[in-house]
Structure formats: structure tokens, C-alpha cells
């Protein structure tokens, strides 16, 4: 009997953005789901799974209709919400799978259609095809291929009707082909070539007389034909397009470009956006805020087409030659502070901004910040080594704290007249001066999709059954704590800490500790206290190179209260570490095989006093270690493998152990680069020795790509890999064979880890499954 695997909340890369026509809603697409945000409050108001598979890479919105596309799928939303108050129950989704990769889609809302019918959709394909699809009748009403048969990396469609369509096609040869899909021959009318790399985005201006392009060469270009106003395709293409602007400044590939009232805005792999003023051909602003890598998509608000402009007034030497440390605009006055110790007030006089007042603050030589509380003006600054908060309006000092001076690291937070916190760094100490009310939890008033999630790939995930929280570690060096609300289907990151100096590759959880490990063979021990991580201890070998990593980790609780951890490294060694009740870490021993192949995975069997460790390496072999005596004596010098077998043709990427009966046998289930699941049963003697080993058929071709994560829980085995598919397999009664039970295509790309646990609802027999990789998604499996 087949089970059911249902996908729920997902956090990952935002791969498409678009505002509603009036700008009151923002469409943000993650995987196959589109989230709708109220732009006035920043809160999510709706969510809709628009496609049955794949990830949405682009969308077009016209009136109450939206077209979303990704891979070979296209979805048209009828009655799409255009304001936060719209009823999502009216939304209807029409989907179609096309024979080729979709690069662009355009709603032809100006093309006449029968009453009540959806508009036609022009669909641009990767092999330089354009199809015109009627979503009402599900028919292709027009299809044309450019005579130049080249594979494309980008396409930009212009026009809202058949007779206004123009195609810009970016080929693998770095050329931009301009052609008319409604013409007779499909011949390229113009060929543009100045980029030195692959073209990633082609964007038309509203009138179709300008075309923006971005590329692998890290530049943005604007092409124009000198025309003005909307013209027919023949007229538009009759005028030669020439490059009138080329902008450099991004330090990595540029993914997206949009027009603004000032010129252009670009998004890049370097995690920044840049605003370009075409009147001066200069970058006028660089927008930061995203972390590490990749701003994939942009959207420009229809009624706020620019968010920055070139300076209209420059106040030179407002604070002499010293640093301007803060500015504040209030009641048509500009307040500024500087390292010259002055508070300057600037006003507009006869159309010109002039400094109308400069005020020194008694006792402060350096000013760092200015703000208002009600009508009271306050400043924060330093005199020698003392930091002061001064109420300028009422002429008194609210706070004086001895510090290391303004050059010492410091941070100030002020909530109200009685709530403040000042942190000062002194050598290896952080001093905190705070009011107690600031330590109370605050409630966020806005929402950012995926806020605090890993900025790079998440490598591992574990479920803490005591705290009932999820923990993840990733390539961004961060360890994160998530709370999952199954009813609301929301994953909230409630804590994040980055004490690892390089990536976190493995996690393990006991009732006492959370253990994380990764680069430089570094291992950290944590406690979860009131849903927050508290650091307990660290073990990092001296002079460990950064390219040496702990790739696999298991922990168990010993009878004397200590925690035992086994860490498998890229050097082919297993390190046994003991963690006492105080969190002190002691290396008990190191052992391994003579081959020294990197250890990718491990699993532990610990029942009563019997302890077996299984490790999987890059050579496809699984090594079984009988460690009962070594643990009892803390002597690992003479440890040798109890059993070795070849489980996979290539690396054993993941491994899980399932105990079967008290002290009788255990199952080793592993997944590898060969896309197969291997299964072996280890039967023990009455005194705990290894009696027999049985190798079962496992599952051949269990995945379309390498398997990277596998978990045995109860009567099922859950596996995931690079094909983004989460698959559940069910044991037979004898636990000698696995049969397929359910599968789902996750929104998480490059799945690297799985957590599987029983649903928190006591009345449910469902399993919760969480997949991490380039994103994070929760699923529910029910029989």
C-alpha cells in the first residue's frame, strides 16, 4: 500500500519577484510556491503552490492574471490577487508542460479574446522557439522558430499583443539576436555583440526602444535605437540598436536587470544591487543587505521607480575634515554629528541648504549618534575613555560609562527614555551596560522571507526530541535553531550563532548536548537553554589545515553521564572524544584503516553495553568497528575492523543504522554516488560479538542522482539526494527488503541532509521529514 508524502513550508532562494499592478503586493517565488507580501507592512498575506514540480524562475503580471514559469512548466493564475484583501479562494491555476526549457513568458493582455477567456501567453524557449499558448483551450495557436538555430541562455519578450511582439535572444555565442516572431521567415533582423561572457538577462524598456543586458562578464549594457514612443516591430527593428552605456562595478556575475526612472538597477552574485544613473553613466548607489552570495532577482515598485538619486546638494566640510558620524531628518531640519564634537543643524533657506547652527556638547569631544525621544534631542559621544548619553534639550547626562574610548568596538541600542544597552569590547572581554527591560523578547512587526536562514548551502540537520526544535549547520559557518509550527506550516529561525571559523559539516544531538563539527577538524559542544544555544566547549587540533574536515559525526550517552562522540574526518581517521558533565572535551583515542580514505558517513549501534560503529568512505566500503571493549578501557590503540564490505561502486555518502530487537542484530542502510541503497544485517552472538552478516538486495537505481542523505525510522527508510527527490521506502515484515512507499520533489536543491521524527500531534502517526541543502523544506509522510 502506497503512502502519501505532502510538502509543506520551504525556505530557499527567491528566484522570481514581481509587484502587483498597483504595487500593494509583492510576489516572491521560492521553489514552486509563490508568496504574497503586503508591501505596506512587509507581512506575508497569502501563499500558493503554483506548479506541480520545478522551481519558478520568472513571472509576468497583467491586471488580475499572472504567468509563472520555471524549467519546462508554465502556470497561469486567473483572479490572481492584486491587493492584500483579495480572496485567494478565487484563484484558479492552469498549468502546462512544454517540450523545452522556458526562458521568458509574456501575457498578451491586449490581444482580443472571447469574454471570460484568459489572455494568450507568448512563451520563449531555449532553442529559439516562440510558442503562443491559449490557456483557456490549452492549444498552441502559433509557433515559430528563429532561422538561426542556436541554444539560448536568455530571452526577453516585448509586447502585449501578437502584432507588437519582439524577441531578444541571447545565444551561447554571446550574441543578442533581435527578431519578429510574427514575421514570415523568422530571420534575425539585428545582431548585437559586445559582451564577453554568457548573457543572463535581457530586459526591454516600456516603449521597446531600449534593451538592457547583463552578462557573465560582470557588465551591464544598454542598447537603444534612438526612437521614442511605442512603435510597430517593423519600425522598432528598422532602426539599428547601438550600445549607449556599459557599466562595470560588480565583482561577480550579474543575474538580473530592471529599468527605473533614473536608469537601471542590477543584481549580482556578489550579493549586492547597484543603481545606475544614465544621465551621468555612473553607479550612484550600491545596496547591501543580502549575505554572502547571489541576489537572483529584482522588482521595481510601479509607483516608486527609483529609491535613490544623485546628490542635489552637497554640504562640504559640514564637520570640518572630521568624520560625519550620523544624520537625522526631522521637521524639515537635518541634524548631523561628527568627530569634531559638534551637532550641526542644516535648513533650507531661499532654496539652498545651509548650516544654520553648530552646537558643541559640553564634555564631549567626539559625537557618534543623534536621535529624538518625543521632543527631546539626545546625542551619544565620548570624552577620552568615557562614553556619555546626553539629553541636549534638558541639559543632563543620562549615562556615563568608562570605556576604551571611541576607537574601541562599541554598539548602542536605545528603545526609550529608560531602556538602553551599550556593549564595549575590551581585549578579550565584552562589557554590557543595559537596563533589564531590554532583555525582554520583542515581537517583529515586519516579515522577510527566509530571514536568518543559511546564506549558503545547509549541510546537516538534526531534530532535538527534548527541546522539540530543529538544528542545522551550513557552509556559512552558522549553526541555527528552527521552530516548526506544523499547523501554520511555518519554519521560524529563532537562534543563529557563528563560532565555527569555517563550514559546519556534521551535527549530532543527545539529551545533554548539541555537537557540531566541520572544517579544520573543529568540534564544538553546545547546550540548548530556553531555545537558545549556549557554547560549552571546543576542540580544534593545533595547526589543523583548513582543508581537513570532520565530515561525519555520531554521539551517544554513556552510563556514567558522559557523552561519547565519534568524528570521521577527511583524513580517513576516526577520533573518539569524551565530553563530561561540565562540557570539557577529552580525546580518548584515534583509529582508522590503512587505506586512509576520507570518511563521509557513520552510524552507531549502542544497545545496553554493546557498541558498534559503522563508517562509510569514498572508496565505497563500509567498515564495521566493535568498540565495546575500547570504550570500557578507553584504549583505542588496538582497535581493528570487525567487518569490511563494499557497499557501493563509489562513495558512501550517507549511512543509517537501525537496531532490530534487544542485543540481537542491527541493519546498516547506506546511499552512495552510484544512486543505489545498500542494505546489510549484522547478527550478534549472545556475548555481543559479530556472528553473521547478511547482504540484501537493497534498492538499485533508487535515485536519479547521487544519494546524499538517508534515515531509518521505525518501519521506513527515507532518502534524498541531488535530484531533489525525497523518497520513502517501507520495510517488509522480515526487514529483508524495501519497497517504494511515496516520493515528492522537494523545493530544496542539492539535498545534503535529512531529519525524520514522529509528528508532535499525539493523535497522528505521521512522520515529519525536513530536507536541507540549498534551502530547507518540511514534509509529512502518512500511511
From TrEMBL:
Biological processes annotated in GO: tRNA methylation
Which Gene3D superfamilies does the record cross-reference, listed alphabetically? YVTN repeat-like/Quinoprotein amine dehydrogenase
Q: Where are the WD repeats?
A: 192-223, 247-286, 451-492
Q: Which residues cross the membrane?
A: none
**Keywords, sorted A to Z:** Cytoplasm, Repeat, tRNA processing, WD repeat
InterPro entries from the entry?
Answer: Quinoprotein_ADH-like_sf, tRNA_Anticodon_Mtase-Reg, WD40/YVTN_repeat-like_dom_sf, WD40_PAC1, WD40_repeat_CS, WD40_repeat_dom_sf, WD40_rpt
Q: Can you say where in the cell this protein is located?
A: Cytoplasm
Name the predominant localization. Answer: cytoplasm
> Can you list the GO cellular component terms from the UniProt entry?
cytoplasm
Which PROSITE patterns does this chain map to?
Answer: WD_REPEATS_1, WD_REPEATS_2, WD_REPEATS_REGION
Where on the tree of life does the source sit, at the highest rank? Eukaryota
Q: Which family does it belong to?
A: Belongs to the WD repeat WDR6 family.
Query: This protein is called what?
Result: Anaphase-promoting complex subunit 4 WD40 domain-containing protein
- Organism of derivation: Saprolegnia parasitica (strain CBS 223.65)
Amino acid at each position: 500500500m502506497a503512502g502519501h508524502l505532502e510538502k509543506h513550508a520551504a525556505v530557499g532562494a527567491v528566484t522570481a519577484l514581481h509587484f502587483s499592478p498597483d504595487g500593494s503586493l509583492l510576489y516572491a517565488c521560492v521553489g514552486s510556491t509563490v508568496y504574497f507580501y503586503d508591501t505596506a507592512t512587509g507581512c506575508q498575506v497569502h501563499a500558493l503552490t503554483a506548479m506541480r514540480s520545478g522551481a519558478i524562475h520568472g513571472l509576468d503580471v497583467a491586471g488580475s492574471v499572472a504567468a509563472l514559469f520555471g524549467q519546462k512548466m508554465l502556470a497561469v493564475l486567473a483572479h490572481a490577487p492584486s491587493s492584500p484583501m483579495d480572496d485567494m479562494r478565487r484563484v484558479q491555476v492552469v498549468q502546462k508542460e512544454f517540450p523545452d526549457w522556458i526562458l521568458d513568458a509574456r501575457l498578451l493582455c491586449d490581444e482580443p479574446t472571447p469574454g471570460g477567456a484568459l489572455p494568450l501567453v507568448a512563451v520563449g524557449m531555449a532553442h529559439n522557439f516562440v510558442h503562443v499558448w491559449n490557456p483557456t483551450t490549452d492549444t498552441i495557436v502559433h509557433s515559430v522558430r528563429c532561422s538561426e538555430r542556436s541554444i539560448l541562455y536568455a530571452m526577453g519578450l516585448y509586447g502585449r499583443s501578437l502584432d507588437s511582439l519582439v524577441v531578444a535572444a541571447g545565444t551561447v555565442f554571446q550574441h543578442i539576436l533581435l527578431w519578429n516572431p510574427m514575421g514570415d521567415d523568422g530571420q534575425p533582423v539585428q545582431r548585437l555583440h559586445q559582451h564577453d561572457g554568457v548573457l543572463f538577462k535581457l530586459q526591454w524598456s516600456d516603449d521597446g526602444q531600449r534593451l538592457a543586458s547583463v552578462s557573465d562578464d560582470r557588465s551591464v549594457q544598454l542598447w537603444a535605437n534612438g526612437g521614442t514612443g511605442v512603435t510597430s516591430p517593423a519600425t522598432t527593428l528598422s532602426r539599428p540598436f547601438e550600445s549607449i552605456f556599459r557599466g562595470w562595478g560588480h565583482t561577480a556575475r550579474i543575474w538580473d536587470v530592471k529599468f527605473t526612472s533614473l536608469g537601471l538597477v542590477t543584481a549580482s552574485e556578489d550579493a549586492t544591487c547597484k543603481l545606475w544613473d544614465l544621465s551621468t553613466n555612473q553607479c550612484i548607489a550600491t545596496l547591501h543587505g543580502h549575505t554572502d552570495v547571489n541576489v537572483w532577482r529584482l522588482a521595481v515598485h510601479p509607483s516608486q521607480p527609483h529609491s535613490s538619486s544623485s546628490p542635489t546638494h552637497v554640504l562640504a566640510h559640514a564637520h570640518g575634515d572630521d568624520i560625519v558620524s550620523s544624520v537625522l531628518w526631522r521637521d524639515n531640519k537635518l541634524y548631523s554629528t561628527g568627530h569634531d564634537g559638534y551637532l550641526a543643524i542644516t535648513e533650507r533657506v531661499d532654496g539652498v541648504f545651509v548650516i544654520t547652527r553648530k552646537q558643541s556638547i559640553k564634555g564631549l569631544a567626539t559625537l557618534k549618534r543623534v536621535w529624538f525621544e518625543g521632543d527631546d534631542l539626545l546625542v551619544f559621544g565620548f570624552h577620552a575613555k568615557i562614553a556619555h548619553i546626553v539629553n541636549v534639550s534638558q541639559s543632563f547626562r543620562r549615562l556615563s560609562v568608562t570605556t576604551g574610548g571611541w576607537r574601541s568596538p562599541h554598539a548602542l541600542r536605545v528603545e526609550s527614555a529608560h531602556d538602553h544597552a551599550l556593549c564595549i569590547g575590551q581585549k578579550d572581554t565584552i562589557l554590557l551596560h543595559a537596563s533589564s527591560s531590554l532583555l525582554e523578547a520583542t515581537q517583529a512587526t515586519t516579515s522577510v522571507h527566509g530571514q536568518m536562514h543559511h546564506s549558503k548551502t545547509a549541510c546537516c540537520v538534526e531534530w532535538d526530541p527534548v527541546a522539540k526544535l530543529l538544528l542545522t549547520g551550513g557552509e556559512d559557518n552558522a549553526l541555527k535553531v528552527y521552530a516548526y509550527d506544523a499547523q501554520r506550516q511555518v519554519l521560524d529561525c529563532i537562534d543563529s550563532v557563528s563560532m565555527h571559523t569555517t563550514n559546519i559539516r556534521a551535527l549530532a544531538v543527545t539529551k545533554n548536548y548539541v555537537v557540531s563539527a566541520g572544517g579544520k577538524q573543529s568540534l564544538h559542544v553546545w547546550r540548548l537553554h530556553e531555545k537558545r544555544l549556549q557554547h560549552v566547549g571546543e576542540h580544534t587540533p593545533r595547526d589543523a589545515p583548513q582543508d581537513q574536515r570532520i565530515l561525519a559525526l555520531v554521539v551517544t550517552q554513556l552510563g556514567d553521564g558522559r557523552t561519547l562522540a565519534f568524528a570521521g574526518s577527511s583524513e580517513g581517521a576516526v577520533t573518539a572524544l569524551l565530553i563530561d558533565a561540565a562540557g570539557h572535551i577529552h580525546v580518548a583515542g584515534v583509529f582508522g584503516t590503512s587505506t586512509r580514505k576520507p570518511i563521509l558517513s557513520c552510524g552507531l549501534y549502542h544497545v545496553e553495553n554493546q557498541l558498534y560503529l559503522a563508517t562509510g568512505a569514498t572508496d565505497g566500503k563500509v567498515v564495521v568497528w566493535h568498540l565495546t571493549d575500547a570504550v570500557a578501557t578507553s584504549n583505542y590503540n588496538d582497535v581493528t575492523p570487525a567487518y569490511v564490505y563494499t557497499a557501493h561502486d563509489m562513495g558512501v555518502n550517507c549511512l543509517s543504522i537501525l537496531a532490530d530487537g534487544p542485543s540481537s542484530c542491527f541493519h546498516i542502510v547506506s546511499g552512495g554516488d552510484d544512486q543505489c541503497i545498500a542494505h546489510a544485517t549484522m547478527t550478534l552472538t549472545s556475548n555481543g560479538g559479530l556472528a553473521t552478516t547478511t547482504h540484501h538486495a537493497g534498492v538499485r537505481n533508487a535515485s536519479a542522482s547521487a544519494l546524499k542523505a538517508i534515515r531509518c525510522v521505525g518501519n521506513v527508510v527515507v532518502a534524498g539526494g541531488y535530484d531533489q527527490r525525497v523518497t520513502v521506502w517501507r520495510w517488509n515484515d522480515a526487514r529483508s527488503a524495501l519497497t517504494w512507499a511515496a516520493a515528492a520533489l522537494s523545493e530544496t536543491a542539492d539535498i545534503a541532509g535529512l531529519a525524520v521524527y514522529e509528528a508532535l500531534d499525539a493523535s497522528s502517526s505521521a512522520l515529519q521529514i525536513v530536507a536541507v541543502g540549498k534551502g530547507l523544506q518540511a514534509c509529512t509522510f502518512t500511511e
